[in-house]
Each structure stands twice: as C-alpha cells, then as structure tokens.
Amino acid sequence: MIITQKLALGSVVVAVAVLGVKFYAWQVTGSVALLSDALESIINVATALAAVWALHVSLQPADARHPYGHTKAEYLSAVLEGVLIVGAALAILREAYGALLHPEPIGTPVLGLAVGSVGTIVNAGWAAVLGHHGRRHRSPALLADGRHLMTDVVTSVGVLVGVGLVVVTGKLVLDPVLAGLVALHVLWSGWGLMKESVNGLLDEGMSDESLARLKALIAANAEGAIEAHDLKTRCAGKLTFIEFHLVVPGDATVTEAHDICDRLERVLKADVPDAAVTIHVEPEDKRKHQGIVVL
Asked: Which residues are listed as membrane-spanning (predicted)?
C-alpha cells in the first residue's frame, strides 16, 4: 500500500474520531452552532471514504479500455466532496432556521468548548499533513480532503468563539445566526471545490508559468531541430500529458530526429514528474515561423 492510500485511510480514522468528539460537544451544550459543526464532520467521514475509493481506482494500471490510466478518478472524488459539502450546508441552514425561531440556552459551555477545541486541533494538524502530501504526490483527492478539513477548522474556530460570545453576552439569538454564517461559508467552500475539480475533468492545461518553463526547456534542449509549435498540455490527477510538433531539417535522418526527441523527453520528465510526452516530428517545410524557436 502506497503512502497516499495510507493517508486516505488515516483520514477515515481521524474523521470518525473527530465526529464523535464534536457530537459529544453538541450533546453537552445543546448549541445549534456546535451541531452545525458536527454535521459538517459527517461529511468529513463521507469524503474521506470517497478519497479512499478514488485513490484505489486511480492507482489501477492502464488497460485496453483505459489506455491513459485511471487517474481522473480522483477528480470524481473531489466533485463528490463538493456535492456533499453543499448538502451539509443546506442541513446546517435548516437547523439554524429552527433554532432562530425557538432559541434555547446553552448548557455546560466550558466542557463543550473544551471538547470542541480538541476536535478542531486534531483536524488542523491532519489538514496540514494532507495538504503537504497532496502537493508532494500531486493527488487531487488528498488536496481536496485537506482543503475541506481546513475549511472545517476555520468554521470550527468561528463556532467556538461565537458560542463563547453567547455565553458571555447571554444573547441566545447569536447561536443560530452563527450557525447560518457557518453554513454560508461551507456552501462557498463546496462550490469552489466542485468548480476546481470540474476543470480537471475538462482537461485543464498547465498554468501559464509552467508553460513558460516548458517552452524555455524545449528551446534550450532541442539542438539540431528548427522550431517547436502547437504545444498542448492537460492534467489528469498526478499525470501531465505534454505534446507538441517538432520541426527538423529536411535532410535529418530518422535516427537524428529520434535522438532529439529522446533528449527532450528526458529533460521534460525531469522537470514534470509523471509526464507523458508525445512529440510529432515534421520536416522543414512544415515550419510555421512561430511557437518555440530552438536556441
């Protein structure tokens, strides 16, 4: 089992533990704001399980029906997380509305706040771990899970501060109002996550900065060629597909053209881990006098 799968399984364990802690905090206080925090933790469990499934599928080798592999499964997991987050936000809004109509006092606030703080600290630490390894291993599923947990941390801190204000001021209406604000924040987070994941499913290319770096590498390492044009990229989970046309002199042999392509492929793969490079070689009369000029 590779590290990304281990981290995904760890997320399930952490999510279940924090869920129990937050529901206990709600039970001892009766705070609808703490209930909203606990409801979001249910989504944490579901999204952690989705990440486990997505990583398992994405690691399956390419086959006859999926010659480019299964790495996009991680984007499906991230989209699902976004949908579940939106669902959680709507559930929180429902609870907040009911509490706004019939506000109730908060019981044993000190114990509830202390217990809730433990869950928040655990989530913050694990979100940092997921973010680090998600970027290191270029895993959309781990990154989505980490960002979701960090959103949960932000809302949890807001909830804990708000519940403390309710206790200090005695204004019970602050509790459901705070829960409503949490729901809106969660809703915005879910929308952003879905938008980013859908871009991945639609074959979004590399950033402008990364493209500029690729062009510079091609220009500096294509000695023997004339130009490169029609550079295209697309990202699919940890994989990055790079393709372009390479114009070589008309009298170049197949071996000479192949050597140039091999050199470029080594350089690009060294710069972009898990890159799949496709180079289409063209004769000199196909040059477009644009694109990447070989130095």
From this structure: 7-26, 38-55, 75-94, 106-129, 149-170
